């Protein structure tokens, strides 16, 4: 049985406990898995075991051993990550296990990086008989807006319409970038910060987001001015500043280690207008420094939550200097 991401909720009640998720839209693949896990949780599937390529050769044994259920009577989700290459035989053979989808003690979720399936191949035909196949393809423009509106359920109705249009226009066709914007908004709402159109339009009140540009442009003076201003008037933005710095450091570290840094940045959801500055920032910092800065981001995050011994704002200033100088 096959469905698209947009119709997944209609198929969950009809499906058995075997799921195969694929398609070019990684955000939708992750959302599909989350929705399936929520549905399974309502059926009593509490435990979860993650299987990566290192354990593919043990997959059949793991399934057989788990089929009888645990000693405590809990149901198990076997979460299989297929993130590179063609689908291995160890996974294909799952669909040949007798009554695999009818076992009441286990559920299997296979999240594959494959963008397409050949429906004429033998294993796909076998899978279609026993699994719910969820295709996560690129959304049409109207579907994208519906998806975005749904993701902004935590926003009050007064702000939602404006935010949907604003985020959509800035990131048309790029769900990764849209998801990044949504994550920031969730952080703001968590801190009980009231949004307004003026804030989203990047005026002075929304100055934290200017920090990203200052840092990737290696503008120490401007970056320190931003954080100094925020410290005096909007100190509750501290966690947001950590998130922005973490985003820069993590995306830069990953891109630095990639054979195609530009493609890596695009995949991470970096706006096209900022990629050239990110490339200069990455070239400026050696990989060992970026990796070291990742640890500093973690320590800074702990400090922002009052769990560190050092002053958060002093640590933030030192971090900015490290990010913008050699």
Description:
- This protein is an alpha/beta fold.
- It folds into two domains: 2-135, P-loop containing nucleotide triphosphate hydrolases (Rossmann fold); 141-324, Zinc Finger, Delta Prime, domain 3, CATH 1.20.272.10.
- Helix content is 55%, strand content 10%.
- It has 16 helices and six strands.
- A six-stranded parallel beta sheet has the order 1-6-2-5-4-3, with helices on both faces.
- Helix 12 runs antiparallel to helix 13 (261-267) and helix 13 (261-267) crosses helix 14.
- Residues 193-206 have low confidence and may be disordered.
CATH class of the largest domain: Mainly Alpha
Order of helices and strands: EHEHEHEHEHEHHHHHHHHHHH
Structural class: alpha/beta
By DSSP, the count of extended strands is: 6
What is the secondary structure topology, with strand pairs?
Blueprint: E1 2-4, H1 8-12, E2 18-22, H2 26-41, E3 45-51, H3 59-67, E4 75-82, H4 89-92, E5 106-112, H5 122-130, E6 132-135, H6 141-151, H7 157-170, H8 175-190, H9 197-200, H10 210-216, H11 220-233, H12 238-256, H13 261-267, H14 272-284, H15 287-304, H16 312-324
Parallel strand pairs: 1-6, 2-5, 2-6, 3-4, 4-5
Helix pairs in contact: 6-7, 10-11, 10-12, 11-16, 12-13, 12-14, 12-15, 13-14, 15-16
């Amino acid at each position: 049985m096959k469905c698209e991401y947009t119709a997944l909720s209609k198929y969950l009640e009809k499906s058995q406990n075997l799921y195969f998720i694929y398609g070019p839209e990684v955000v939708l693949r992750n959302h599909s898995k989350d929705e399936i896990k929520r549905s399974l949780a309502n059926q009593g599937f509490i435990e979860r075991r993650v299987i990566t390529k290192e354990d593919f050769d043990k997959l059949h044994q793991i399934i057989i051993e788990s089929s009888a259920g645990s000693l405590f009577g809990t149901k198990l989700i076997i979460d299989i990550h297929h993130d590179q290459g063609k689908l291995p035989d160890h996974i294909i053979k799952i669909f040949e296990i007798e009554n695999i989808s009818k076992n009441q003690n286990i559920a299997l979720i296979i999240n594959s990086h494959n963008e397409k399936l050949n429906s004429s191949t033998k294993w796909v035909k076998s899978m279609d008989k026993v699994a719910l196949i969820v295709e996560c393809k690129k959304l049409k423009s109207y579907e994208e807006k519906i998806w975005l509106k749904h993701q902004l359920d935590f926003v009050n109705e007064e702000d939602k319409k404006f935010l949907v249009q604003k985020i959509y226009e800035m990131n048309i066709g790029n769900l990764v970038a849209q998801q990044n914007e949504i994550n920031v908004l969730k952080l703001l709402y968590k801190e009980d910060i009231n949004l307004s159109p003026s804030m989203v339009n990047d005026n002075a009140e929304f100055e934290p987001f200017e920090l990203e540009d200052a840092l990737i442009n290696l503008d120490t003076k401007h970056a320190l001015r931003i954080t100094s201003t925020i410290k005096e008037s909007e100190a509750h933005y501290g966690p947001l500043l950590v998130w922005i710095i973490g985003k820069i450091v993590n995306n830069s570290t990953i891109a630095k280690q990639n054979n195609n840094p530009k493609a890596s940045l695009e995949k991470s959801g970096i706006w096209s207008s900022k990629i050239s500055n990110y490339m200069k920032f990455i070239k400026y910092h050696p990989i060992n420094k970026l990796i070291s800065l990742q640890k500093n981001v973690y320590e800074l995050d702990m400090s922002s939550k009052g769990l560190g011994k050092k002053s958060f704002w002093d640590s933030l200033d030192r971090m900015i200097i490290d990010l913008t100088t050699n």
